Amino acid sequence: MNTNGVHYNFVNVDQFPDKIEPNIVYVCDNDKAISLICPCGCGDLLKLAMRLNEDHHPSWVVKGNSMSPSINRQVGCRSHFTISNGITH
Fold first, then answer.
1. Across the chain, what does the average pLDDT equal?
2. Alpha-carbon distance 46 to 76, whole Å?
3. How far apart are CA 14 and CA 27, in angstroms?
4. Is the link from the previous residue into 69 a cis peptide, with omega within 30 of 0?
5. At a CB cut-off of 8 Å and minimum separation 6, what does 14 contact?
6. Which of 54, 62, 79, 80 is 20 to 30 Å from 36 at the Cα level?
7. Whole-angstrom distance, CA of residue 80 vs CA of residue 19
8. How far, in Å, CA of 47 to CA of 15, rounded?
9. What letter would DSSP give residue 21?
10. E strands, the chain, where?
11. What share of the chain is helix, strand, coil (3-state, %, to 5)?
12. How do residues 11-53 score in pLDDT, each as one tens digit?
């Protein structure tokens, strides 16, 4: 499925909720992680480490409603996407 044009809202949380909702990127500073449902439609839960230091790879940085670098899944649906200004590309 095409991942282009999927809209996401970014929400800061103290802890991840029990149910991760689609189209929301949960940013948890306490866990130093990001969680979201894959935009391709497969329904997989993605949990990504936020950058702790320059030696921690892979890791992602959130700025506003954008995150980098791109997410390139090596398993499952194998989707590859970025989120910029809340929209996948």
1. 90
2. 11
3. 8
4. yes
5. 28, 30
6. 54
7. 24
8. 13
9. P
10. 9-13, 24-28, 33-37, 45-49, 61-63, 66-72, 80-84, 87-88
11. 0, 45, 55
12. 999 999 999 999 999 999 888 899 999 999 999 999 998 866 5
In the chain, what's the furthest Cα-to-Cα distance? 34
pLDDT score, position 55: 65
Rounded Cα distance between 70 and 44, Å, is: 17
Residues in the chain, overall count:
89
Within its chain, how far is the Cα of 26 from the centroid? 8
7 residue type, one letter: H
